[in-house]
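DATA SHEET
Item: assembly model
Revision: 1
Owner: S.N.
Input lines:
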Amino acid sequence: MVDSKQQWKAWLYLAPAIVLLLIFTVWPIINTVRISFLEGYNAMSAVNGAHFKFGFGNFKKVVEYRGFATCLKNTMLLCVLTVPISTFLALLIAVCLNSIKPLNRLLQTIYFLPYVTNSIAIGMVFAAMFKIVGFSVEGIEQSTSLGIVNNILAVFGAGPVNWMNQGSSYGANIAVMTIYIVWNALPFKILILLGGLQSVNKQYYDAAKVDGTSKVRVFFRITVPLLSPMIAYVVITGFIGGFKEYTSIIGLFGENMGPVGSGADKPLNTMVGFIYDSIELHQGRAGAAALILFGIILVVTLLNLYVSKKRVHY
Amino acid sequence: MKVVLENLTKIFPSRTKGGKEVIAVNDFTFEIPDGKLIGLLGPSGCGKSTTLYMICGLQKPSSGKIFFGEDDVTELTPENRGVGLVFQNYALYPHMTVKQNILFPLQNLKGADKMSKDAMLERAYEAAKLVQIDELMDRKPSELSGGQQQRVAIARALVKMPRVLLLDEPLSNLDARLRLQTREEIKRIQQETGITTVFVTHDQEEAMSISDMIVVMKSGVVQQIGKPQDVYDSPLNLFVAKFLGTPPINVFNGKVENEKLLIGGNAVLDVKGVSDQEVFVGIRPEAFIIDKQGPLECKLLNVEVMGRDVSIVSSHEDSVNPIIRSIVDADNLKEVAQESVHFALKPHKVFIFNKDTEERIYVGNEKEKVEADK
């Protein structure tokens, strides 16, 4: 313990961080809650001294807004699709990586690369992989690039699929986004799970070997339970990340949040996208949407914690 | 099921290029008789655990063969050998209850060996009863004491009725009192089941107390195999003599001249048939007899009375170690002067070793002791 005469020193050292956190994190949170209850709040009128009625008007507006249901649906759908898929794949890859001896470090680095790559850049690369690009130059006949994914599909005699061009289906769009988000989410999850695997006592596996346990049984009866704290962590943070999905869609589809020709409807918009859209003119509405998102994340996280209480072995 | 080890050798390649490879076990040949309890004994790094893991099948020998009975199991995987292994830190699955832990090996059985749920439960309870943990079946390992975890580990190893039971440092994680109790328990379980059992330990007392036979190892080479008392009474070399016994044997620099053993210039013992040479003399703590006329004069440092034993701590300029510890009869204590103490020696507790090879070249016999007493 710091003795009381020394305490002011401790506070002094902490002060810069505390002051910054108070100004840029704590106050904005409080302010968001405040303005979300001020009906029709916007910063411009507030500066001009306008008064706003206290109430649930912003929330009502958000829920009634025709884009909101789309945003909520997209967000939920992406969460439900990407979190289980990426967690399972990450677990599989981590187990494989852990059992490979040669080039282990190199492989770990390769799998970690997406984590340090800009997600907009990754989005553009993915768009190039999935997009059909047509060239039409005068005098020369038209040539078309179907994109690498369609070319691979063609090898198996399938496709081509209109993944994300004009007129592409919602299902195809979601598929592309799922693949992209899963790929983007893998490195962090692999890192955490690999760390967990490396701290598992090897003797459990020796014991299982002596008992003639099959590989599949070892995975489900020993590896997964022993990793359950890490899996729970990865799932919970995965859901929180999933609910905040936004940049990936910008990266893939650009500002109009949908394939070309979908107009101003933004058919692939998400909750965070909705908040950004409202923030310029309707801060009250953006605040309300943020609080709704917070509520959803809170409920899902509590649900996760409840389930993990029964399933996780610390 | 007897276990035969034939020229068993394990070489670990060097981790760095051009480095030295490590011979963990060197040309180990031994037949473990059926239904006996064998202790593999040695300091850490002597290859005893490697030997155990090779018998188990978790490590492949570099050369040599292993037979269970008449079957050559050298190439078999652990599960096909029919061995039960108890790990040093038990390796109980922390997320399973005691019952699930014990059932686990049975649930792995496939094909013709597959058992019904009821049969498995019955077998699990049988094993649990044998080690007296049938009351704890629904607890998690973390809710058990060290001794209880140990029993669960033994039950898990026994439940599939292995041909050979292997124990890796089974008592090292227990406190002193529990250790005493558990080693008796291991002996009892082994005798009740009659399973050939091999256990590894660095604690000589542990090995001596419960083994039918002990194998003393040093840097991968077997030093001596035999009944515990035999090995203690006639160690083949200085290492074995030093390794067995608490308090440890006292070693002196000595000389043999005209069939007399000299320590510090005084003839302490007649040694027939030993040629003149410089030697190491090993004297067990219990070999010392306090005797005013005794030829071995030591400087008295301390007298420790520890319950039934009286231990005299003294020093001698020719002793290899700074102190000499002897355990003597309390009756003769008045013979001890303030500054020095004179000892006579029991011949059969004195060993003479070659100064270079450290092989034993002489041990007195009990008959001479009777004569000396007269």
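QC remark: The two ends of chain B are 49 Å apart (CA to CA).
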